[in-house]
Design brief:
CATH topology: outer membrane lipoprotein receptor (LolB), chain A
Order of helices and strands: HHEEEEEEHEEHEEE
CATH superfamily: Lipoprotein localisation LolA/LolB/LppX
Structural class: alpha+beta
Strand order of the largest sheet: 6-5-4-3-2-1-11-10-9-8-7
Radius of gyration: 21 Å
Strand content: 35-45%
Helix content: 10-25%
CATH class: Mainly Beta
Distance between the termini: 81 Å
Number of domains: 1
Largest sheet: 11 strands, antiparallel
């Protein structure tokens, strides 16, 4: 009888100390957690590796995000490029000397799609994408918890095999983005020293004058 009581006590203690479900265990949890993150400011390092390159291509920059859809994605090196989304309107600018020049080429249309997707990722609203099919993948011994995005368009799938959006330690956040190209190309974007919840002025989401 004593051993039965001991087992019962052990099970009760284990249940009481069990960790709560992870915030990323389902889509509702992901959206709720992301909704609590009002603003994000962070630096990032983008590393692109290709089989034909002896060394990876490294770019550095900063990102600012303000709910619901204001976004600033700025490459500072090696080439200064600015991508801004303000109230749904996207602009891309290139820096020539000390002057920012608006880019109206075909690349802008492609970037609008990319920026729209990034907004959805930061919003935790992966299922709203018309470009990718999201798959929620929990943490395992080999990889952290993340969302795998598989292209819906066959023409895009010829370029990108999948994208992994890696969750951060703080609920509702993203720590890294991995873009796997068909073949052996991989682009890894790691966010560094993020700051959450601070006030970001409107001019951060306006193009330079």
């Amino acid at each position: 009888m004593h051993w039965l009581l001991a087992i019962a006590g052990f099970l009760a203690a284990g249940a009481a100390g069990a960790a709560p479900p992870a915030w990323y265990q389902d889509w509702d949890g992901v959206r709720r957690a992301a909704a609590a993150v009002r603003t994000i400011e962070t630096s990032f390092v983008q590393t692109r590796t290709l089989k034909i390159l002896k060394k990876p291509l490294v770019s550095r920059g900063v990102m600012a995000y303000r709910r619901p859809n204001d976004l600033r994605w700025e490459y500072q090196s090696p080439l200064a490029t600015l991508l801004v989304v303000r109230k749904g309107n996207a602009q891309r600018l290139l820096k020539h000397g000390e002057t920012w020049v608006t880019d109206s080429s075909a690349k802008l249309e492609a970037m609008k799609i990319v920026l729209g997707e990034i907004n959805l990722w930061l919003d935790g609203n992966f299922s709203a994408s018309k470009t990718f099919r999201p798959e929620l993948r929990p943490a395992s011994r080999d990889q952290p918890a993340h969302v795998a995005l598989v292209p819906l368009d066959p023409s895009l799938a010829k370029i990108i095999s999948r994208i992994a959006i890696v969750f951060g330690e703080r609920p509702g956040t993203v720590s890294a983005i991995d873009i796997f190209e068909q073949g052996e190309g991989v682009t890894h974007i790691a966010f560094e020293n993020p700051r959450y919840g601070g006030d970001i002025p409107d001019n951060r989401f306006e193009t330079p004058r």
